[in-house]
Write a structure and sequence with these properties.
Elements: E1 2-8, H1 22-27, E2 34-37, H2 44-53, H3 57-60, E3 66-69, E4 72-75, H4 86-93, E5 97-101, H5 106-109, E6 117-119, H6 139-149, E7 156-161, H7 163-171, H8 176-195, E8 203-208, E9 214-215, H9 224-232, E10 241-244, E11 247-250, H10 257-263, E12 270-274, E13 278-282, E14 297-298, E15 306-312, H11 316-327, E16 330-331, H12 334-342
Parallel strand pairs: 1-7, 1-8, 2-16, 5-6, 5-7
Antiparallel strand pairs: 2-15, 3-4, 8-15, 9-14, 10-11, 11-13, 12-13
Length: 347
């Protein structure tokens, strides 16, 4: 049995058509795209940490792309998840695993150092590697690395393709450029599938997205720092928060009344969470919190929680899993348990 995860960053369901992504559509055992639901905030690192641990951010600890440590915001990749990962379980079970991650920071975020092999080594971008427009490895380079490592030889493989997210950030998720990138990423995906050809009858493939993106209005960014200072400081001067795309995150441990103060702030249209797990808040459609970098798309709010799910492969279990995914909305945390079950382990 071989299980391949491919996470296509920020891929929206509207791109999964036979015109734009024929390889992905052909993979589907059910002939359609299933739907998943991610964790909040709808950013890359909390959702990937949930994929690999099977638990929510309140448990694995990576509640945002940056987390608070000793009263400082640090990158989630420098901290890593507090919970055991699928790579830890594979090692315990004597199964070979590999992680090939287009965003090098995901090596730390996913605890991929515990895999049998991981790329890029040590979570450091390989010098001279071809990069996408936001500085992460290009999808072609990521697939090249996966093929060089022989991902098809491992019982469990995880591959992350970044460029859908990058192009959608710059041009917007519904732009012609984003559509063209979906096709380019699909070609890269097809190369992965070809590598599994000799082992197809023994393989289950799970293609996921971590979040979608939403169009943002140029010049519509709202700097919430001053507003939050006014409403939070009187309640809890020690509370810390951070704006990230179309959301803001208040770190766990705040005074319980902070949540209510944020919900009542001008510019906040919704919020979830509280003292223990932290708070995620967002504004109206297309509104960024923080700096406006002139991008066309972003994510973080509850509006980007939808995840693409496509399951296929030649192993008989692929059809059962595809039907199960089609029957209900799959949580991001469910893939850890489902995958270990496929590999013969009870998580």
């Amino acid at each position: 049995m071989r299980v391949l995860w491919v996470v296509m960053d920020a891929l929206g369901a509207d791109k999964v058509t036979s015109e734009l992504m024929p390889n992905l559509v052909a993979l589907s055992s059910t002939g359609s795209v299933s739907h998943g639901i991610g964790v909040l905030p709808t950013t890359t690192y909390p959702n990937h940490a949930t994929f690999v641990t099977g638990v929510e951010p309140a448990i694995h600890g990576l509640y945002a792309n940056d987390v608070l440590r000793a009263d400082r915001w640090v990158g989630a990749q420098t901290v890593g998840p507090d919970s055991p990962t699928i790579f830890d379980r594979c090692r315990e079970l004597g199964l070979k695993s590999v992680a090939v991650l287009g965003d090098q920071n995901l090596v730390g975020v996913c605890g991929a150092g515990a895999a049998t092999l991981h790329w890029p080594p040590g979570g450091v971008l390989v010098e001279g590697i071809a990069c996408g427009p936001t500085g992460y490895a290009a999808d072609t380079a990521t697939v090249d690395a996966a093929l060089e490592l022989g991902v098809e030889q491992f019982e469990f493989a995880m591959v992350h393709l970044d460029e859908n997210d990058a192009v959608s950030h710059i041009h917007g998720p519904h732009s012609e450029e984003a559509r063209a990138q979906a096709t380019a990423s699909d070609i890269a995906l097809g190369r992965l599938f070809e590598a599994y050809g000799p082992y197809w009858d023994d393989t289950v493939v799970i293609v996921l997205s971590d979040h979608s993106q939403e169009d943002v209005e140029p010049g519509a960014a709202v700097d919430m720092s001053a507003r939050l200072e006014e409403v939070i400081a009187p309640v809890d001067p020690s509370a810390r928060w951070r704006c990230d795309g179309t959301c803001l995150v208040v770190a766990p441990g705040m005074h319980p009344d902070v949540a209510e103060a944020v919900r009542g702030s001008v510019g906040v249209s919704g919020a979830v969470g509280g003292q223990q797990e932290g708070l995620v808040a967002w504004g109206s459609d297309g509104v960024l919190f923080g700096l406006d970098w002139g991008q066309g798309g972003d994510h973080g709010s509850i509006r980007c929680r939808a995840q693409v799910v496509v399951v296929g492969g030649g192993h008989p279990d692929a059809d059962d899993l595809a039907n199960s995914a089609a029957d209900s909305v799959s949580s991001a945390s469910s893939w850890y348990r489902r995958t270990l079950s496929l590999l013969g382990a009870v998580p």
